[in-house]
Amino acid sequence: MPAVLLTAPEAEPIGLGDAKAYLRLEHDAEDDLVAGLIAAAARQVENITRRVLIAQRWRLDARLPCDASGIALRPRPVREVEAVRIMLPDGSFETLDPADWRFDWGAERLYVTKPAPAGRGIQVDLAVGYGDPEDVPESLRLAVRRLVADGFERRGAGDGAPADVTALLAPYRDFSL
């Protein structure tokens, strides 16, 4: 199920000043390095947890399932289902009325209630992410800080996230059987 970013996040989960304070860094000589580490750390947290941190908009292309399992919406967390479109036989898309679908907030799955053949293409526009930087859970923000500090100290020499970061991210990880 390919997903396309429609609107990128406008900020990172922590700012440059926050990261520099955490690093106890008072000079500006390495601001570019720290800014790069913030972006890299945020992407690492997003990749590990399979969640986006800051508000953004995505379009998910999928196929209607042949059973009643619904469509798992990714990326997560879903803040709003903005539009659901179903592919017509001629290849064009029809926007479904909200009465023709329902979203299960707990499972983050979309169910199309309008009769349609299995395998039919569907597009879903989503608002995802926790919101603004201050809306991101503090444990995820701390994981970003720790990864920034680890990257700053090691300067790229190391493999994987430190154990304390892995522990911070564990409650947010997606596991499937």
TrEMBL record:
<dbReference type="InterPro" id="IPR011738">
    <property type="entry name" value="Phage_CHP"/>
</dbReference>
<protein>
    <recommendedName>
        <fullName>Phage gp6-like head-tail connector protein</fullName>
    </recommendedName>
</protein>
<dbReference type="InterPro" id="IPR006450">
    <property type="entry name" value="Phage_HK97_gp6-like"/>
</dbReference>
